[in-house]
Amino acid sequence: MADVLLVHDDIKLYTTSDKFFLEPHINPTEVLVIDRITGEASVKDIKYVKIPIPVHAYKPVCGFLGTIRLISGLYLVVAKYRILVGKINGHDIYQLAGTDIIPYARSTTHLTSKQIEDNNTYERLLRAALETPGIYFSYGYDLTHTMQRLHSVAADFQKMSLASRADSRFLWNGHLLKEFSQQQFQRFALPLIQGFVAVNRVTVNGHQLTWSLVSRRCVERAGTRFFMRGVDAQGNVANFVETEQIIERGGEKSSFVQTRGSIPLFWCQHPDLRYKPPMTLSPEDHVAAYTRHMRDQTQRYGGQVLVNLIDQHGKEESLERGYRAAVAAAALPGVRYEPFDFHAECRGMRYDRLNVLMDRIAHEQTEFGYFLSRGGTVLLRQGGVFRTNCVDCLDRTNVVQSMLARRQLAAALRLLAVTTGDDQHPQFDRLFNAVWADHADMISLQYSGTGALKTDFTRTGKRTHLGALRDGVNSLTRYYKNNFSDGSRQDSIDLLLGKYVVVDGEGNTVPCPLRRDRDWKYVTFPSVLMVAVSMFCASAVLPSRYSSEVLLYLMFWGAAVGATLSFIFRHGKEFVEWPRLDGAGLALVGPRGPPPSL
């Protein structure tokens, strides 16, 4: 791959009353000048720019991430802190560790008190989105593309800036950078991905290798576990993640790609206080949406094996039947459906049964192969991918993806003459397990709000009772977050990605969606429940002896607790925290932006 145009890394941010100046720290030749009054931005030769404040009066930042409009006006978004992850293809990869959002407006006197309150809420939502763990960037390596894609493009593509050539599916600050797509900004616009990146230097049989794992979360239908499910009319699916395993040794590079994504049907699972809300298939054209999704996938990746790990009986049965029917009705060439009832097959912690699935898809893994280049010359190309899913595309999915990755890793190391196939490498095995478990936790945290389940198997190769206990704690945490905090998290994602755009006059001449009155039941019944529980406990604990009167009190307050709980769960959806922006929590099955460009 040819060298790309590097993005400026360390930057001096000078702030005056009417302008922002972003000057590269090392050997500056140009300055990004932003007018805080008009919002106009331009890159100027440093010889013609005079910054009217002392040269030492700057704020150090490590990247320009773009701008966004909130109620008070435009905001500048910059990266403040970073953590070095490692090198891929000779370029440093960083994890975003801190950002700053700076208003263009010097005061909020032009806003009403309600607008100021709403603007502060938008600021909190934006900060929450930018503080989500697992945001990465590089000043010289295109993290939005796989190695195979980067070796399959024209020479002109390599000359483009990182932001302008980025795969829009995985560009998480694309909305922030939309006004900075011109060539003059090419060395300032720093693209971000969300997902997971791990880079490790390892030695196997005396061979020095770099083993990396890169996952990219898609911005289309991005969101939280219960508020974003299924497919939209354009064929975009929720929780779509492209995962690439990379091996580098000198000039030799190998890459293996897998994908995951929600079942490509129109379905939803709105939270309603039940531990597992019902899954609902909507009466829409499932086959058409499935076909759009799969045609896009086959065009991008080649052949597809659809590994479906959901239950084939019980609550998940309707989804499995619908998926199977859509695959049969579309009958697309190069697409094969591979159902595997994970829970039934592995009941009783029999995770060795996963070898049954591995054996069934082994011939296709050999057929699809993987990418391999030596000295810039492509020797092998990957001809297809495994698209794995469960209901959430998290826990079961990660177990199977790690097994596929392990098999490919062994094959690539044999081809590179690093191993013979019979030798054991326990230290590398432990690293592999730990990284894939960390990967599972990160992807799960971004979608469900907690770490993944079943990571004890990924880390140790076996299911344990302690792991099952941890899964229980994570499940309870998920239950709370999915019902009582994911509405705001969905709003923060929609705001960052531009799925909702703040309009001029919002909160004054235009209604602000953040202001949503709760039904009277939202406050009344939880309050009654708290009083009833308190009185029941007091009646049970305080009396020195129990009389018939005390027992009547216990029965009364116990009945009050039961009746209140019954009412709350019967009207569960009214007590859930729903998203407020763009109606995301109310109409989840439908268009969510344009289809990704092919």
Structure description:
- Keywords: Membrane, Transmembrane, Transmembrane helix.
- The chain crosses the membrane at residues 523-544, 550-569.
- Its EC number is 3.1.3.64.
- The chain is an alpha+beta fold and 598 residues long.
- The chain contains 15 helices and 20 strands.
- It has helices at 113-130, 147-150, 155-159, 162-165, 286-301, 317-330, 342-345, 354-368, 395-415, 426-448, 455-460, 465-484, 486-497, 520-541, 548-570, and strands at 11-15, 19-24, 30-35, 41-45, 59-61, 63-70, 73-88, 91-103, 135-137, 193-204, 207-217, 241-249, 252-260, 267-268, 280-281, 303-308, 335-339, 371-374, 377-380, 384-389.
- Strands 6, 7, 8, 9, 10, 11, 12, 13, 16, 17, 18, 19 and 20 form a 13-stranded mixed beta sheet that branches. A five-stranded antiparallel beta sheet has the order 4-3-2-1-5, with no helix packed on it.
- Helix 1 crosses helix 13 (486-497), helix 5 (286-301) crosses helix 6 and helix 14 (520-541) packs antiparallel against helix 15.
- The chain is globular and about 90 Å long.
Helix fraction bin: 25-40%
Strand content: 15-25%
Structural class designation? alpha+beta
Mind describing the biggest β-sheet? 13 strands, mixed
Number of strands: 20
Shape: globular
Q: What are the segments in which pLDDT stays under 50 over at least 5 consecutive residues?
A: 583-598
Instruction: Give the end-to-end Cα distance, rounded to a whole number of Å.
Output: 21 Å
User: Mean of the pLDDT scores?
Assistant: 92
Total helices: the number is: 15
- Using only CA atoms, what is the Rg? 27 Å
Domain SAC: 126-449
Keywords: Membrane, Transmembrane, Transmembrane helix
EC number: 3.1.3.64
Pfam families: Syja_N
